[in-house]
Amino acid sequence: EHLGGHFPTGLKGLDAALCGGIPFGVLTELIGPAGIGKTQFCLKLSLLASLPTNYGGLDGRVIYIDVESKFSSRRLLEIGLRSFPEIFQMKEMAQEMAGRILVLRPTSLAEFTQSLEQIKVSLLQKQVKMLVIDSMAALVSGEHEQGARRQQTLSWHISFIKSLAEFSRIPVVVTNQVRSRNHEDASRYSFQVQSRDGAIGTTMQYDSHLVAALGIQWAHAVTTRLVLEAKSGERFIKVAKSPISPPLAFPFHITSSGISL
Ligand code: ATP
Ligand code: MG
After folding, report:
1. Whose CA is nearest to atom 22 of ligand 1?
2. Beta strands in the chain (DSSP E)
């Protein structure tokens, strides 16, 4: 069973490093600059989660919080058709799989707060097998509230999302965009991965814009943090924080069949 286990991403090296994949019951954050593949990664994971278990899926529903309207059903079906033609060539099956992914588009933090109660009820019914928030920073960026009051509101959201992951024991995947400090060289970001003892227990110096948006409580609430980045024309996914993996990086590609090695 997947309880307390890990959900394979299909990126073999990454899955091996993470003892099987994305952990259940905790928050996993995907961060990186615009266009690097965070949403593509979420689409692939959502599709995988919807699949029958004999295809490596979780045979369940997915709740996808699509804050910036970047979810694309057309792209989802393309990935499905390329990766699992046996399923997605059958129109009814394709519709059934796509229909398992419930896309919510809150236009404000208040609207998101309201939907969280609804999400909790869905999770209690045990049919939802994954929660995706793409992206968390975008959700709070439009808020005008400042200072202590804002931190308080945000603090409540962070605790709530964390508790959703814990009680339902599903993977919760959250994206956040980080800006590149040097716009001529997108591979140099304003954050660093520092490893203590050269292995486990990595910490990250956050992009100041992300700290401004979400605060340090967010950084601590996340159990696994994966950084997507580009270097010399190649894409990499890096384990930046994990209770089990050293800070390893794995190359990946985005093709018509989605995120792959
Ligand atoms: P943002 O922070 O702006 O949301 P992101 O990290 O979510 O960015 P994605 O939207 O996941 O970025 O990735 C977009 C990239 O995915 C495109 O630039 C393109 O390189 C790649 N991509 C998207 N669709 C395809 C496709 N059908 N075939 C190949 N590559 C694709
Ligand atoms: Mg995106």
Report:
1. 254
2. 6-7, 22-23, 27-32, 61-66, 101-104, 128-134, 172-177, 192-195, 202-205, 224-231, 234-241, 249-255, 258-260
**Could you give the CA distance from residue 4 to residue 166 in angstroms, rounded to a whole number?**
10
What does the alpha-carbon distance between residue 10 and residue 13 come to, in Å, rounded to a whole number? 9
CA separation for the pair 42, 175 (Å, rounded): 8
Please tell me the pTM assigned to this model. 0.91
CA-based radius of gyration for the chain: 18
Q: How far is the CA of 59 from the centre of ligand 1 (A)?
A: 26
pLDDT digits (tens, 9 = 90+) for 139-181: 888 777 777 888 888 999 999 999 999 999 999 999 999 876 5
- Nearest Cα neighbor of 75 from 42, 105, 104, 51 is 42
